Amino acid sequence: MENGKFIVLEGIDGSGKSSQIGPLVKRLEGLGVPCRADREPTQRPVGALIRQALTGQTPLDPRVIAALYAADRLDHLVNEENGLRSAIDRGITVVSDRYYFSSYAYHSVDVDMDWVIQANALSAQLLRPTVTVFLDVSAEEAMERIRRNRDHEELFEKEDRLRRTRELYFQAFDRLRDVERVAVVDGSGTQEQVAQRIWSAVSPYF
Hints:
five-stranded parallel beta sheet; alpha/beta; 10 helices
């Protein structure tokens, strides 16, 4: 049996990636590809603690948050209930909203990127994305979307921080260009336009 693919959508908050997961999964299923959607942080115990930190319910040091993301990601890969690694080994293609590039970018605002990459090294060894699709929008546009669509902002949703996070995404892409496949896609325009750009980046792998 051929392994499934692992497609990751990345982007700063407000880039629109979450709304693109469903259409991409539907398009793949229409081609007969066994497929499932996923996201990080997970709904499992470590992921629940992360969401408490993001919403301010449980204040945590940025280094602790970075470590929790690494732990949640590893659990996401290997847990017996719905682990990513076993699903892909069974031929299921997984489309994920975020993976370790999110940590490399978001957490490196506060923590050295070398440390963040090393903290996620086991996850990278266990499963690298078939392709990471980065939806690129400016911090200004992202914040406009966040304010328009949500009634509260989370920990990382500040314009200056999103601007720095976007810069760090590109630093991480450059740093890992020899081992990772990354497609940068313009995230502006209608949902249909962005969906077609994503498909152009993903379709060569199917």
